[in-house]
């Protein structure tokens, strides 16, 4: 079974949070920044996926209205 994009994005976000926390604990600014970047990228991917899902739903709604379903 394939892992959903939502699950992948959440895992990436958690990984970024972990790196950010580890960087804070060890006073490693580079690791902290890398974690922030990973977290931001995952959140951005999730927003794009959410927007694409909304567009797909709207297209399906229009298609259903046109076909009478």
TrEMBL record:
Q: Which Pfam families match?
A: CsbD
Basic and acidic residues: compositionally biased ranges: 1-20, 29-39, 47-69
Which InterPro entries does this entry report, sorted A to Z?
Answer: CsbD, YjbJ_sf
Q: What residues does the CsbD-like domain cover?
A: 5-57
Which stretches does the entry tag as region Disordered? 1-69
SUPFAM superfamilies, sorted: Hypothetical protein YjbJ
Q: Which family does it belong to?
A: Belongs to the UPF0337 (CsbD) family.
Quote the protein name from its UniProt record. CsbD family protein
Q: Give the organism, scientific name.
A: Gordonia bronchialis (strain ATCC 25592 / DSM 43247 / BCRC 13721 / JCM 3198 / KCTC 3076 / NBRC 16047 / NCTC 10667)
């Amino acid at each position: 079974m394939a892992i959903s994009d939502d699950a992948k994005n959440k895992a990436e976000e958690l990984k970024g949070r972990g790196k950010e926390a580890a960087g804070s604990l060890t006073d490693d600014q580079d690791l902290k920044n890398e974690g922030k970047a990973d977290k931001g990228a995952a959140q951005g991917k999730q927003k794009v996926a959410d927007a694409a899902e909304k567009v797909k739903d709207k297209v399906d709604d229009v298609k259903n209205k046109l076909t009478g379903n």
